């Protein structure tokens, strides 16, 4: 089976003084989250599409799903304390409600990347059915500088550098096994789900993303996203 998991557990602190997490802010005529989930609803191969949200926003998420989406595959689940804890909350829901096999996979995506395309989703599905872990990336345009305490430590070769996006896709049982091997200290420092598999020695396959598949994080990003939607419409 193929599942989708929309990670909507963030608090959106970099968005500034707003009344709700950024995934619930309005983009054009509806919440950012809804724009994102609509792209996944178009893919018929998903057995279920989970929206994993903050516990305090469960009722709100259920309300907007009921208002805007009419697909029984969409399920609302409460998330955890951080990104990877939220990811594993969604996996736990799948384990409890579906008879998972060694071949089942999950396509995970940021709720605040509403410009994902059907091509990116399809490429992730194709790749994860053949690889244990998949990351969506775009080539780095700018030179990447590694630094600490206002000093440069290293300047990697740009041609070998990529910027990570989502989806990130996994064989579910491989992901769970890798996560269970992590120490508490490792779990506390992880900011990227694919690193769970890397630390366990699993290869991560790359899928090409798009520059417009950006994450709405700041007020500036929201202005850019609004302009893109208005231009498209």
From TrEMBL:
Record-listed E.C. numbers: 2.7.7.40
Record GO terms (molecular function): 2-C-methyl-D-erythritol 4-phosphate cytidylyltransferase activity; D-ribitol-5-phosphate cytidylyltransferase activity
Annotated site location: Positions ribitol 5-phosphate for the nucleophilic attack: 158, 215
Segment forming the signal sequence: none
Site feature location: Transition state stabilizer: 14, 22
Organism superkingdom: Bacteria
Catalytic activity: D-ribitol 5-phosphate + CTP + H(+) = CDP-L-ribitol + diphosphate
Keywords: Cell wall biogenesis/degradation, Nucleotidyltransferase, Teichoic acid biosynthesis, Transferase
Biological process according to GO: cell wall organization; isoprenoid biosynthetic process; poly(ribitol phosphate) teichoic acid biosynthetic process
Primary enzyme class: transferase
Gene3D superfamilies, per database record: Spore Coat Polysaccharide Biosynthesis Protein SpsA, Chain A (3.90.550.10)
InterPro entries found in the cross-reference section: IspD/TarI (IPR034683), IspD/TarI_cytidylyltransf_bact (IPR050088), ISPD_synthase_CS (IPR018294), Nucleotide-diphossugar_trans (IPR029044), TarI (IPR034709)
Binding site for CTP: 7-10, 80-86
Pathway given in the UniProt record: Cell wall biogenesis; poly(ribitol phosphate) teichoic acid biosynthesis
Family, as annotated: Belongs to the IspD/TarI cytidylyltransferase family. TarI subfamily.
HAMAP family referenced in this protein's UniProt entry, alphabetically: TarI (MF_02068)
Function: Catalyzes the transfer of the cytidylyl group of CTP to D-ribitol 5-phosphate.
Record-given protein name: Ribitol-5-phosphate cytidylyltransferase
Name of the gene this protein is made from: tarI
């Amino acid at each position: 089976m193929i599942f989708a998991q929309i990670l909507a557990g963030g608090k959106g602190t970099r968005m500034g003084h707003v009344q709700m997490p950024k995934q619930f802010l309005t983009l054009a005529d509806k919440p950012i989250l809804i724009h994102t989930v609509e792209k996944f609803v178009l893919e018929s191969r998903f057995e279920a599409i989970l929206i994993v949200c903050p516990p305090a926003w469960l009722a709100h998420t259920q309300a907007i799903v009921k208002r805007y989406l009419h697909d029984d595959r969409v399920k609302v689940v409460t998330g955890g304390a951080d990104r990877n804890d939220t990811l594993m909350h969604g996996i736990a829901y799948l384990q409890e409600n579906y008879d998972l096999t060694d071949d089942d996979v999950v396509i995970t995506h940021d709720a605040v990347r509403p410009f994902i395309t059907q091509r990116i989703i399809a490429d992730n599905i194709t790749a994860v059915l053949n690889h244990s872990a998949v990351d969506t990336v775009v080539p780095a345009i700018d030179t990447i500088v590694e630094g600490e305490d206002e000093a440069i430590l290293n300047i990697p070769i740009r041609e070998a550098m990529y910027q990570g996006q989502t989806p990130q896709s996994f064989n579910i049982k491989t992901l769970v096994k890798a996560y269970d091997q992590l120490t508490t200290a490792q779990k506390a420092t992880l900011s990227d789900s694919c690193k769970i598999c890397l630390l366990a020695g699993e290869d991560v396959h790359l899928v090409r993303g798009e520059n417009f598949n950006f994450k709405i994080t700041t007020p500036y990003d929201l202005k850019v996203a609004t302009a893109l939607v208005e231009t498209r419409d």
